[in-house]
Structures are given as C-alpha cells and as structure tokens.
C-alpha cells in the first residue's frame, strides 16, 4: 500500500463528541471510536457529503462523511488522523454532539497506511474532552512551540506504541509534549485537569505492557528532554537523576566513580530510569541485587492534580509516615510523574564469570537452580533459564551449533564480586554442583568477548521468535521458583491445543519466566484474535494455581488489565481503585491502565 502525501486541513465545525462507532470494518476487525469522520473537497473525492449538526439531532445513524477512492471508487471514510475503507457509510457512527474545533488530517489518496490503520480503543462513553487548538496554544506557552508535536502523524507515530507487538495495541496521541522541568509538568497536569484531557507519561517507550500507550488519546508527555544526571554523590553513594536518563548511561557514568548501579533490565541500553521506576523493572541481576525499587531512595513527583512533592532523599532509613515511595514505585505512570529520582549505588564489582550449562531436560535444569543457593551457598548475579524450544530456535537463528547435541534446557549463570578469589570459589562450586546434578557440560566465559557471546544466546531469543512470526504475545509470568517444572506440561498442552509455539525462558532464579505465545503463520488473524484471550486466560489461571501471577516485571498496563481479576480479588482491586481515585480524582493520569473496565471487575 502506498501513500502519496498527507495534507492537513483545519476545520472549525460543530461536531459530535466522540461517542461511537457502531461497526467499522477494516480487515474484519471491529474498530472503535473514530474521533470524527469527515472529508474535505481537497481530497479529490468522487462523492462527498456532510450532514449538519441540526439535521442530525435524533437522526439515529448520521452519515458524517463519505467519499470514494479517486481511482478504485471504494468508499472511504477519513477520521482525524486515519483513513479507513468502510464497507458501507451507514456502518459508521452515532454519537452525541457538542461544539468544538478540530484539526483534520486527510491522506491523499486515502489509502490505508500503518499510521492510519491504528485501532482506537476508547470505551463508548469517553469521559474526556478533545484536544483543541486553544489547548495546543496553552501547551506551547508552557513548554515552547518547538517541543510540541501536533499535526504530524509521521513523527507522532513513534509515540503511539511501545514494544508490545501488534497494531491493535497502538493508539495515536492527539498531541506530544516534551517538558523540561517539574514545574512545566505541574502546569500541564493542572491544565489537563481543567480541560479533562488524559495525560500519558512516557520514558523511552521500551515497555512490554502498553503502559506508555495513550489509549484514550490526549496528551503524550515524553520525558526525553529530562535526561540529565543531576549529581553523583560518591560520599553518600547515591545518584540523583532526571527520569529520561537511559539506564545504561547511568551505569557507565557511575562506573567512572568506582560505583555500581545494580538495576539491569535486559533493555538497559533502551529504557529510561523513569520507566524503570514506574514498572519497578527487574531483569538479569534481580536474583542477587533485587529489582529497581530496592534502589529508589527519593522521588520528586508531580501528582496527577499538579502539585509537586518530594519524598525521601539521600537518607538510608526513613519510617516517617506511610511508605509512599514504595506505593509509587511500580505504579505504572498512574499515580504521579517522576521528575527526579535519587538512587542508591553500590561499590563497583570488578570480577565476573559467566557459565553456560546445558542439561538433558527441564526438571534437571530447574532443579539445579535452588540447589546452587542452598547446597552450593552461592547467590549468583544472574540465573537465566532457556527451555528446549528457545535453545533450538535461538541457535538456528544465530546460525551456530548448540554446545551439546542433547540439550533439553540450559542455564546461564553469572557470578560477580570484588575479589577474584571469591568469584573463583563461587563459580567452581556451581560447576561441581551442576555436574553432580546431571549437567551435560559447563562452558566458562571469563573474558569480555566470551561473556558477551554467552549472553547473546539468551538475549537473542526474542528476536529469533520474531523472525518466525512477528504476531505474538510476550508474557511475563512469575511462579515460585520450585514450581517452574509444574508449569511446563501446561505450556505443552496449550501449545498443542491452540497450535502455537510457546517458548519459555527468563529469570529462573526468581521464577519470572517470559513465555512468547507465537502465532502459527498459517493461522488467520481472525482466528488468532479469537484464540489469544483463551490461551491467556488458561495460562494465567494455571499460573495463579501455582501461586504465581501475571506479571513479574513488565507490568499490567493496558495489555493485561482485563486479566487482573484472575489474580487479584474484588476487594483488592477496589482498594487499589480507591487509591487511584485519591491521587487522581478525574482519572487524568494514564487512564485505561492496570484496572479492568469497571464492569469487568
Ligand atoms: C528487549 C527488551 C528487553 C526487556 N527486558 C526487560 C527486563 O529484563 N526487565 C524488565 O523489567 N523489563 C524489561 N523490558 C521492558 C521495559 O524495558 C521496561 O519495562 C522498562 O522499565 C521501561 O522503561 P521505559 O523508559 O522504556 O518506559 P516506557 O515504556 O516509556 O513506560 C513504561 C511505563 O512507565 C511510565 N513512565 C515512564 N516514565 C515515567 C515517569 N517519569 N513518571 C511516571 N511514569 C513514567 C509510563 O507511563 C508507562 O506506564 C524489556 C523490554 C525490551 C524491549
């Protein structure tokens, strides 16, 4: 499909507030909420009509606009930043009206493109107002006109999604703002409350739960300009950073001061500290060093209502009042926008060794994991697990021969420390133990290049499955470590029942496994849309039955919100909803995340 150009037309018009689409067929998927359906004479339309607001009153299914593709004659409907092929104009909309101004983006010719075919997922009765030119002007006054994206679908597209595959999860913001200070964010939040516009905070957009996707449109608040390391305080062993600092850059910066930042999501080179705090990110070192929250000592936060508050600081201990830092960490951008973060640092480790250990089957590999700690008395830095399908596929993808012909599962273990002697003792203890427990072999990486090659096997698994089929659901379940083998038959059963691939790999040391549910390329998109919720429900139910939950580190976001009632009872969901309401009475900050729609739980 090609697009030859996009034109922007500003139309001041009495139009109907988004309220609803009856049926909007595009690739047979139900579409919801076009903000507005209109066309313009400039769109070369063969037919064009527009029904005035007055003639629409009580008219049931008014036709807002329809035109035909200039060459094929296919009926087309243009919706703000979208252009869909409609089967029938009377399928389009019904809604209630109010006066507003809107800017229309019309593609010409109106052929569906990637950005134009995004799904809108607003509930039928949106409590939010549209972004108007007046609001854009006020936002420009706050952050400066050059730090606003509006009317630029090609440049705004990047802000419509995170790293969750699938266009059905994406949603275009109405406007992207890039503030530079807490004060600017405070003003934006006050304005958004006044005008009832949703605001979605975004760090680097590497999330895997659609947390930074503006599912209700409105303002996308990017922290990309707030990327300064404010202070590295060696004496107190803390760093103070702005939220947009990339995690890997902080690690490198503190290393120069002989210090160590322990946070290590596998996306370390992509993600930001603000996103790590909002998701309470874990990663490859959590077994020894814990997750992000362990290192958050202080936060400067803009509350959803616009007040700026400061919690904690450089002091190590603090039991004064409720522990609000712990509440905000992992709140997925729903309770406040972090504008400064004080992080605890550790002494820099200087020695590390990586081990790659193939086993004949999953139970032997998983069985070894706790014994490394209990019998071997070693707390490894990383203890990663790769199931049989993951191992086979990643080696094929890398074009390498697996390290042993009979691999049924593999562990990747890293040990670090400040003394060579201690690290040698620890990794030798692990080798001896694993060989006793049936390891097929042990490979040792103790130079930067061998360590990197070993980690690459683990890190490339996701890419290997994307190469098979990009349509997939990336899952992040967690079960008690010893229950991992009990989950394997269930994965096998689901994989066969639904004819999908379900590779399993991840942080075995803390029971947090990533299961990628990969669509069979032969399965139709419609069948996939129908089967995925059923697979997820069965998977999550099994996980809950093992004492686990639906996300260990990626968060609930909007991707998993419908499934929250499978693992949290109504009382707990209600308590959390009330906390949200206390912070954000108008549900302005990152709505549509964590909680299922009210009627679903
Ligand atoms: C290849 C790959 C590997 C990954 N590996 C891991 C892993 O090992 N462990 C892990 O935990 N995650 C992992 N992730 C997921 C992701 O990188 C993390 O969730 C990360 O913390 C997101 O950071 P971000 O800056 O990209 O946040 P975004 O995706 O931009 O946002 C994530 C959430 O944080 C909120 N948010 C962002 N900034 C702020 C702020 N300043 N104030 C308030 N809320 C804010 C957003 O609203 C959203 O809800 C991986 C992702 C990829 C693509």
Task: Describe, in plain words, how this protein is organized in 3D.
The protein has 601 residues and is of the alpha+beta class. It folds into four domains: 1-126, no CATH class; 131-345 and 568-601, Uridine Diphospho-n-acetylenolpyruvylglucosamine Reductase, domain 3 (2-Layer Sandwich); 351-461, 2-Layer Sandwich (Alpha-Beta Plaits), CATH 3.30.70.2190; 471-554, Alpha-Beta Plaits (2-Layer Sandwich), CATH 3.30.70.2740. 28% of the residues lie in helices and 20% in strands. The protein contains 16 helices and 23 strands. It has helices spanning 53-56, 133-143, 153-156, 182-195, 247-255, 273-279, 286-289, 324-328, 362-374, 388-398, 420-436, 448-459, 461-468, 484-498, 525-545, 570-583; strands at residues 6-16, 67-68, 75-79, 82-85, 97-107, 148-149, 175-177, 199-202, 219-222, 229-233, 238-241, 259-260, 296-302, 308-312, 337-344, 346-347, 351-359, 382-386, 409-417, 443-445, 472-475, 504-507, 512-518. It has a seven-stranded antiparallel beta sheet. A five-stranded antiparallel beta sheet has the order 10-11-15-13-14. It has a four-stranded mixed beta sheet with strand order 6-7-9-8. A hairpin with a 5-residue loop joins strand 13 and strand 14 (308-312). The longest helix is centred in the C-terminal third of the chain and has 21 residues, at 525-545. The two termini are 41 Å apart. The structure holds flavin-adenine dinucleotide (FAD). Flavin-adenine dinucleotide is lined by residues 162-163, 200-208, 211-212, 223, 243, 265-267, 271-272, 274-276, 278-279, 281-283, 332-333, 337-338, 462, 553-554, 590.
């Amino acid at each position: 499909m090609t697009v030859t150009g996009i034109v922007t037309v500003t139309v001041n018009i009495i139009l109907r507030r988004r309220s609803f689409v009856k049926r909007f067929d595009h690739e047979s998927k139900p579409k919801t909420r076009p903000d507005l359906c209109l066309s313009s004479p400039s769109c070369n339309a063969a037919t064009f009509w527009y029904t005035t607001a007055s003639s629409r009153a009580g008219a049931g299914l008014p036709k807002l606009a329809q035109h035909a593709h200039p060459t094929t004659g296919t009926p087309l409907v243009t919706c703000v930043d979208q252009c869909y092929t409609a089967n029938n104009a009377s399928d389009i909309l019904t809604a209630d009206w109010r006066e507003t101004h809107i800017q229309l983006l019309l593609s010409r010719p109106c052929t569906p493109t990637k950005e134009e075919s995004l799904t809108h997922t607003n509930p039928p009765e949106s409590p939010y107002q549209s972004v108007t030119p007046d609001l854009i002007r006020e936002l420009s006054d706050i952050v400066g006109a050059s730090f606003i994206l509006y009317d630029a679908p090609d440049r705004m597209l990047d802000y419509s999604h995170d790293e969750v595959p699938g266009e059905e999860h994406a949603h275009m913001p109405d406007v992207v703002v890039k503030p530079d200070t807490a004060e600017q964010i405070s003003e934006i939040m006050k304005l958004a409350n006044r005008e009832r516009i949703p605001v979605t905070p975004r760090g680097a957009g590497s999330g895997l739960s659609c947390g930074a996707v503006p599912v209700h449109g409105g303002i996308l608040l990017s922290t990309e300009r707030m990327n300064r390391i404010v202070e590295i305080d060696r004496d107190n062993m803390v760093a103070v950073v702005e939220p947009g600092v990339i995690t890997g850059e902080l690690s490198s910066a503190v290393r120069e001061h002989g210090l160590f930042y322990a946070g290590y999501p596998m996306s370390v080179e992509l993600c930001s500290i603000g996103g790590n705090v909002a998701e309470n990110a874990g990663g490859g070192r959590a077994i020894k060093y814990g997750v992000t929250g362990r290192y958050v000592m202080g936060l400067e936060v803009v509350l959803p209502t616009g007040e700026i508050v400061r919690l904690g600081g450089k002091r190590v201990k603090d039991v004064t009042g409720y522990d609000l830092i712990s509440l905000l960490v992992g709140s997925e951008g729903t309770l406040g926008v972090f504008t400064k973060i004080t992080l605890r640092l550790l002494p820099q480790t200087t020695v590390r060794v990586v081990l790659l250990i193939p086993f004949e089957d999953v139970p032997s590999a998983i069985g070894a994991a706790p014994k490394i700690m209990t019998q071997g008395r070693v707390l490894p830095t990383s203890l990663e697990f790769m199931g049989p399908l993951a191992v086979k596929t990643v080696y094929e993808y890398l074009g390498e021969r697996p390290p042993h012909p009979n691999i049924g599962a593999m562990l990747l273990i890293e040990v670090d420390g400040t003394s060579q002697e201690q690290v040698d003792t620890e990794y030798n203890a692990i080798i001896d133990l694993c060989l006793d427990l049936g390891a097929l072999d042990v490979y040792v990486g103790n130079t930067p290049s061998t360590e990197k090659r070993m980690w690459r096997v683990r890190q490339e698994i996701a890419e290997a499955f994307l190469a098979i089929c990009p349509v997939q659901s990336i899952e992040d379940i967690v079960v008690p470590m010893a229950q991992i083998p009990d989950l394997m038959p269930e994965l096998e059963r689901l994989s066969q029942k639904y004819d999908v691939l379900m590779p399993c790999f991840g942080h075995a040391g803390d029971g947090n496994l990533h299961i990628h549910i990969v669509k069979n390329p032969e399965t139709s998109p419609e069948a996939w849309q129908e089967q995925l919720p059923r697979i997820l429900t069965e998977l999550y139910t099994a996980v809950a039955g093992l004492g686990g939950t639906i996300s260990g580190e990626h968060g609930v976001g909007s991707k998993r919100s419908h499934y929250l009632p499978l693992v949290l009872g109504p009382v707990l969901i209600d308590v959390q909803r009330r906390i949200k309401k206390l912070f954000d009475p108008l549900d302005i900050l990152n709505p549509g995340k964590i909680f299922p729609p009210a009627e679903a739980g």
